[in-house]
Specification:
The protein is α/β, with parallel strands linked by helices and 268 residues long. It has 4 helices and 19 strands. It folds into 2 domains: 190 residues, Alpha-Beta Horseshoe (Leucine-rich repeat, LRR (right-handed beta-alpha superhelix)), CATH 3.80.10; 49 residues, no CATH class. 17% of the residues lie in helices and 29% in strands. The longest helix has 24 residues.
């Protein structure tokens, strides 16, 4: 009799767990529009706290249509819910060239922007506390990563900006499967960080892999904002030149320091 009761109890808990898992996997997906007019999907992660995540809630199902190109400004609020998360694989395989993530977002989850081969510019807000594994993996054209995080320590998981190919030049490492991992983005892109934080980034896990880390000086913040606004029209560099107040020059630059295609340049 005890054995029968134990079996019944076990079946009850198995059924309860199955129902809970089913409820968890069947999160309701909603849609909204960005300021650019792009439709995207989001899910509610905290009803009581009015918090949402950009994503479909399904693995490998992106939040936007794959053919959408140009600039995508992630909203900081959707229908009264504060956006705190970019979900797993939310933009995987996207064709966007610029992504602006707003203040208030706290986590960029696993594979969020994986294999976004056209992505050139990304802006990460100061509120981000975690960037998941492979979040920007295989971003073969990334050239400017703008981070507003004041304390980058313990914010990145492994291989966030890595790339890999079956065979390749000067690998970062070769894993147990014989795949060659490259430092592509870390070598190619410039990481812009807040003034006075460069050493912190150079000492922080994964961030320290960037070869080029530049601090945003007092006047550079406006310039970086101008680049973010202009980036969607920049295809392999459109040659636009900005001064350190963020103004685009309409004539040839004179002697001084300017920003062109996401990089500082000096005219002598």
């Amino acid at each position: 009799m005890k054995t029968i009761n134990l079996i019944i109890l076990m079946m009850f808990f198995m059924n309860l767990t199955s129902n809970l898992n089913a409820q968890e996997s069947q999160k309701t997906t909603y849609t909204a529009q960005t300021t650019e007019g792009y439709v995207f999907m989001y899910i509610i992660v905290d009803e009581a706290g009015k918090k949402a995540a950009i994503g479909s809630g399904e693995k490998f199902v992106p939040a936007i249509q794959p053919f959408i190109r140009g600039r995508f400004t992630v909203p900081n609020e959707v229908n009264g819910y504060k956006v705190i998360q970019i979900g797993d694989y939310a933009f995987t395989g996207c064709q966007l060239d610029t992504v602006i993530i707003p203040e208030g977002v706290e986590t960029i989850e696993h594979g969020a922007f994986e294999s976004c081969n056209n992505l050139q510019y990304v802006s990460i807000p100061s509120t981000v506390k975690k960037i998941g594994t492979y979040a920007f993996f295989a971003g073969k054209n990334l050239k400017s990563v703008i981070s507003h995080i004041q304390n980058p320590q313990n914010t990145m998981e492994e291989s966030v900006f890595d790339e890999w190919v079956a065979i390749g030049a000067k690998p970062r490492e070769i894993d147990d499967y014989g795949r060659t991992w490259l430092n592509g983005t870390y070598q190619r892109a410039t990481l812009y960080v807040p003034k006075g934080t460069k050493e912190l980034y150079q000492e922080s896990f994964e961030w320290q892999e960037f070869d080029k880390i530049e601090e945003m000086e007092s006047g550079d913040t406006n310039a970086i904002n101008a680049i973010e606004n202009d980036a969607s029209t920049s295809k392999q560099g459109n040659g636009s030149v900005f001064d350190l107040t963020g103004r685009r020059l309409s004539t040839a630059p004179q002697r001084g320091i300017y920003i062109q295609d996401g990089r500082k340049v000096m005219v002598k």
